[in-house]
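The protein record filed here:
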Amino acid sequence: MAVYLDHAATTPMLPEARAAYVDALDLVGNPSSIHSQGQNAKRMLEEAREQVADSLGCDPIEVVFTSGGTESVNLAIKGLYWARNGAAPAGRVGRSATVSRPRPRILVPRGEHHATVDTVEWLEHYVGAVIEWLPIDELGRIRLDALAAALERPDDVALVSLLWANNEVGTIQPVAEVVALAEAHGIPVHVDAVSAYKHVPIDFASSGLAALSVSAHKIGGPLGIGALVLSRRASVVPLIHGGGQQRDVRSGTQDAPAAIGFGVAAQHPATSLRPLRDRLIAGVRAAVPSAVLRGDPVDRVDNNVHFTFPGCQGDSLLFLLDAAGVSVSTGSACQAGIPEASHVLIGMGLDESEALGALRITIGHTTTDDDVDAFLAALPAAHERALRAGYAARDVAR
């Protein structure tokens, strides 16, 4: 049986979440209908919203269900940008156009998930936004001094957006400090908490955030549903228009069964994965002494192990481990299959050859000691073969 160590890409559904989801598929009635069956569906939907809100320390009305983390990030960034600039523009602007926006700048650290990177680049290309990329340090953490410098001219800043925990190297970001710097100038902050949810304490009410994005399938809920937590004091221009089912922020018939599964997963108690994670880190270092742990060695989410292997291609290691029955990744699943150096590692100061040797091993609620043992047993042979392949490729190149 294959060993699955790619929980950051998606984690198996929790049995209780799956059972609740399957049972809810028999629900009849649109939650917006006023007859009894519709109102029963609405009641169950709103109970799920309360469960998700409770897990995030926010009010239920602040939870806007979306199709997943990517839509949530898009809604937050585009919606906040447009709201801060008056309205959503019509038509394409293009990179070379000069556009008058009262607040054109978006402050974003390097090393963000592509849901954020591609969204802000779209705004730059089509709307005339000005993206200011903030440097990160060698551990993948935002440089607060650079953020403070960018905020010295606060009047033209639309928003700040960053990950709570880096999805590739696992480093936890100083969210409270970022919010404090931005809040002093009345600038909203959006956080992508998809990789942090259930791995760090989240209390939206006390965070000072304007918006926060999460996804159900990363915590044992169904695929195809996420949420944007939008503060009562924040406003966004919606991406989808129609019935205004959720605060006029997102329209469309709500997926009650998926929300119910999400709610059950949100209420599932989080168990620390730190002991398994630390055993994995120690085991990799013992098996391959040349391997380099990336990300903060202490302030990292408890399910993430990320190494670079000098002289190896991460893709080669991945395929060799897969042939041995172990599933891992080289980085974000959203970029899987594209042989290019991680922009996260490049942002951290690695050169391309170093960055191409990355392997991300992420654990979850189904991971056992035997899974860790199986990975550590398969790694030395896979590393030796990947190293030989790397030497052969360099010889051919010469």
Notes: The mean pLDDT is 93. The CA atoms of residues 174 and 309 lie 28 Å apart. DSSP finds 13 helices and twelve strands in the chain. The two ends are 41 Å apart (CA to CA).
